[in-house]
Amino acid sequence: MKLIENLEWRYATKKFDPLVKIGTSDIEKLKKAVQLSVSSYGLQLYKVLIIEDQELKQELRKASWDQSQITDASHLFVFCNYTDRDDRHIDNYIQSVADIQGTTVEALSGYGTFIKQSLAAKTNTEWNHWAERQTYLALSNLLAACAELQIDACPMEGFESERYNEILGLSSKGLNAAVIAPVGYRATDDHTQFRKKVRKPHEELFEMI
């Protein structure tokens, strides 16, 4: 199983080679992998910013505890969840389903109503937590795709979300920076790559019932 081999290869890269950039074709493959991610109800209530502008990355590094991955990586993926609870997101999704699957909005109205009622039952705190968690599903696909392409990545929660929102103008767009991932190629002197992977043993992690 190639996936297992790829996952054995990957690690959270601490030091990137700033001189090596990801090719356009590989960026498109990463985008496709993220696009195909699972999400609750299929809504994909998030937006992914892919930042390569070096000056902007320098600014974001200041809001990321001065971690070098932000500026040294080829690209920075910023996963942003939507903060508004507008039903238009659901209406747009139902319209897309109708268009792509060759049915009608009327035929899907019951499903649309079900989604709206399910999400409306959440408190604002529950909804925000749920929306942020959706971005992690997309992040998982990015990490797996990077591993297959032998591209290094480092999922990170070590950043100031509010400052990201300010720098990137996210709040005015109804977005919030939830999790980030610098991607690129490891530096040869990143000693983290030589550490043995530490994971719980199967007998502790799994229980067959």
TrEMBL record:
Its cofactor is FMN. The keyword Magnesium does not apply. PANTHER family: NAD(P)H NITROREDUCTASE YDGI-RELATED, NITROREDUCTASE. The keyword Thylakoid does not apply. It comes from the Bacteria. GO terms for molecular function: oxidoreductase activity. Belongs to the nitroreductase family. Residues 8-185 form the Nitroreductase domain. It comes from Flagellimonas sediminis. The lineage of its organism: Bacteria, Pseudomonadati, Bacteroidota, Flavobacteriia, Flavobacteriales. Keywords: Flavoprotein, FMN, NADP, Oxidoreductase. InterPro entries: NfsB-like (IPR033878), Nitroreductase (IPR029479), Nitroreductase-like (IPR000415). This is NAD(P)H-dependent oxidoreductase.
